[in-house]
Amino acid sequence: MSQPLITHREDENKSPGRAISFVFPAILFLGGMALFTIAFNYDWGAWLFVGGIALIGLAFAIPTTILPALEDRE
Fold this sequence. Notes:
Layout: H1 16-39, H2 45-72
Helix pairs in contact: 1-2
């Protein structure tokens, strides 16, 4: 009988860090999309557009670079 290619790790299940790595970036991504949506309706919309870019960039940076770097410190 062959071994499974992907094994389930018990320590990843129900960890708070895993929830934060999904929920917080999702909120930031939706906030960035909301800023893009309202950026074109105001005179100071350029700042809202830049803020939307920053929020979406941070939403992708948290699970891909920031959290792995924090986990490697241990």
